[in-house]
């Protein structure tokens, strides 16, 4: 089908975009359009106004400093995939981005669009969760910062107000002796993940785990952090038994099921992927033990 | 409601000026307004890849892009690929390897392969890379092997 009629706006600045979102009824932000346009063509979304951020150049930049990366909301997924800066500073994001859709959709799909759309099968929200990423948001009162976990609210729903837009994502720089891994399972590459897992492990000089992050997608309407399992890993060596135990514990996480992939199937996947991702992260962190 | 926008873009190297309705997508603009019907419309929600064109050199689903978003952009479609009646080498290779049957997906496949050729910058490509690029183009009749063979003949390890 074709999209229903709407009025199109192409602001040239963040301030102009915020003013438009605050003054228009039933307006939606158009980022890369790789989710919103299908929803409009299928008539499950029918905004009266589209506010296209594609003409605001400042929103499509990747910047790096000592602590990490600032990734503009309108940065294309393909630009992230091709960025040496991202590969070096945030390998977890670089690894995950190749799983996002197809190259034909990554060319136009954006980092901010995926984060705001919050599809339960999407990769970038899971990465943002594992990174404890911060989001910078512009509204009528100026800029504010929000932890990703205070941003993801519900199925396809963020806590952004109607007159706010996402400006950029703060991703911390990977620390020394830290390793990360992103894994997902689906029936064909490039499909939405049935279950995805993003992990980070940091080791001390003796090889014991100093900190762990495990974020899971596909188990629920928004990314989950497995906080208890993370805490239980701290202080231990990342050996085979410890990581297998973490995988078993992860498999007990309550999962949503549907007619295609029931909850117990997702739990099985989750247990396996958590164990494998932690193993890979430990090796990348320089673990000497035989994991 | 007609929300008119004047746009200027280049399509296959030629400048085009037009007045479009905001809700008109790029695929429909190319087909209905410019009569460039080589760009095919399959699913209209970004899954099948039949409508793939190049936007500033990068492959994109033209059913998921508004014509008004193409203002100022450089669009390449299948009509610009063959030159002076001669098939492009990618088209000729697809033909040699039976990489098409009904032809519905073929314009999108060719545009994806043109992007792949430009991106490879002379590198030898493996089958995995070729299949990953083509995974965004659904074909319901050839089964892809002919397309992969065509790309391998052009850019694979044994051809340098």
CATH C-level name of the largest domain in chain A:
Alpha Beta
The tally of beta strands of chain B, per DSSP, is: 5
Judging by the overall fold, what is the CATH architecture of the largest domain in chain B? Roll
Proportion of residues in extended strands of chain B: 15-25%
In percent, how helical is the residue content of chain A? Answer: 25-40%
Total beta strands of chain A: 14
Rg of chain B from C-alpha positions? 16 Å
Question: What gap, in angstroms, lies between the N and C termini of chain A?
Answer: 52 Å
Give the ordered list of helices and strands of chain B.
EEHEEEHHHH
Number of helices of chain B: 5
Overall form of chain A: globular
Give the class of chain B from helix and strand content and strand pairing: alpha+beta
**Strands of the largest sheet of chain A, in order across it?**
4-5-10-6-7
Describe it for me?
- The complex is a heterodimer of chains A (291) and B (160).
- Chain A is an alpha+beta fold.
- Chain A folds into 3 domains: 7-52, 2-Layer Sandwich (Uridine Diphospho-n-acetylenolpyruvylglucosamine Reductase, domain 2), CATH 3.30.43; 60-172, 2-Layer Sandwich (Uridine Diphospho-n-acetylenolpyruvylglucosamine Reductase, domain 3); 178-284, CO dehydrogenase flavoprotein, C-terminal domain (Enolase-like, domain 1).
- Helix content of chain A is 33%, strand content 25%.
- Chain A has 12 helices and 14 strands.
- In chain A, strands 4-5-10-6-7 form a 5-stranded antiparallel β-sheet. Chain A has a 4-stranded antiparallel β-sheet with strand order 11-12-13-14. Chain A has a 3-stranded parallel β-sheet with strand order 1-3-2, with helices on one face.
- In chain A, strand 13 (209-217) and strand 14 form a beta hairpin.
- The model of chain A has no long low-confidence stretch (mean pLDDT 96).
- Chain B folds into 2 domains: 4-80, Beta-grasp domain (Ubiquitin-like (UB roll)); 89-155, DNA polymerase, domain 1.
- A 5-stranded mixed β-sheet of chain B has the order 2-1-5-3-4, covered by helices on one side.
- The longest helix of chain B has 15 residues, at 106-120.
- Chain B has helices at 26-33, 89-96, 106-120, 127-134, 145-155, and strands spanning 4-11, 14-21, 52-55, 58-61, 74-76.
- Chain B has 160 residues and is an alpha+beta fold.
- Chain B contains 5 helices and 5 strands.
- Chain A binds chain B through residues 1-8, 10, 33-34, 37-38, 41-42, 50, 52, 54, 78, 101-105, 107-108, 188-190, and chain B through 1-3, 5, 21-23, 25, 28, 44-47, 49, 52, 55, 58-61, 63-66, 68-69, 112, 115, 132-133, 135-137.
């Amino acid at each position: 089908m074709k999209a229903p009629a709407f009025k199109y706006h192409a602001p040239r600045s963040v301030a102009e975009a915020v003013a438009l979102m605050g003054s228009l009824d039933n307006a939606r932000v158009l980022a890369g359009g790789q989710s919103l346009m299908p929803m409009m063509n299928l008539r499950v979304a029918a905004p009266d106004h589209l506010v296209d951020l594609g003409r605001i150049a400042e929103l499509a930049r990747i910047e790096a400093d000592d602590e990490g990366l600032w990734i503009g909301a309108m940065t294309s997924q393909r630009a992230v995939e091709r960025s040496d800066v991202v590969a070096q500073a945030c390998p977890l994001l670089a690894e995950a981005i190749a799983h996002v859709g197809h190259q034909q959709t990554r060319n136009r799909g954006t980092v901010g669009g995926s984060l705001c759309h919050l599809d339960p099968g999407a990769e970038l929200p899971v990465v943002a969760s594992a990174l404890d990423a911060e989001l910078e948001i512009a509204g009528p009162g100026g800029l504010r910062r929000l932890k990703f976990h205070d941003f993801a609210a519900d199925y396809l729903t963020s806590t952004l107000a109607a007159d706010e837009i996402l400006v950029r994502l703060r991703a911390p720089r990977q620390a020394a002796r830290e390793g990360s891994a992103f894994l997902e399972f689906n029936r064909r590459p490039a499909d939405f993940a049935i279950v995805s897992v993003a992990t980070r492990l940091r080791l001390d000089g003796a090889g014991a785990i100093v900190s762990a992050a495990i974020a899971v997608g596909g188990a629920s309407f928004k990314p989950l952090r497995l906080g208890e399992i993370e805490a239980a890993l701290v202080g231990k060596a990342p050996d085979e038994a410890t990581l297998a135990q973490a995988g078993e514990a992860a498999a007990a996480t309550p999962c949503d099921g549907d007619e295609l992939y029931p909850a117990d199937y997702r739990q099985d996947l989750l247990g396996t992927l958590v164990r494998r991702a932690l193993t890979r992260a430990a090796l990348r962190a320089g673990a000497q033990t035989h994991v | 409601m007609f929300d008119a926008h004047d746009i200027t873009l280049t399509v296959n190297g030629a400048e085009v000026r037009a007045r479009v309705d905001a809700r008109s997508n790029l695929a429909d603009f190319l087909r209905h307004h410019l009569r460039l019907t080589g760009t095919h419309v399959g699913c209209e929600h970004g899954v099948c890849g039949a409508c793939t064109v190049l936007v500033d050199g990068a492959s994109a689903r033209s059913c998921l892009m508004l014509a008004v978003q193409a203002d100022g952009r450089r669009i390449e479609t299948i009509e610009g690929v063959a030159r002076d009646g001669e098939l492009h080498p990618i088209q000729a290779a697809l033909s040699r390897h039976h990489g098409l049957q009904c032809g519905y997906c073929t314009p999108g496949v060719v545009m994806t392969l043109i992007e792949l050729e430009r991106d490879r910058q002379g590198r030898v490509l493996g089958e995995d890379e070729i299949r990953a690029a083509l995974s965004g183009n659904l074909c319901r009749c050839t089964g892809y092997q002919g397309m992969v063979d065509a790309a391998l003949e052009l850019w694979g390890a044994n051809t340098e």
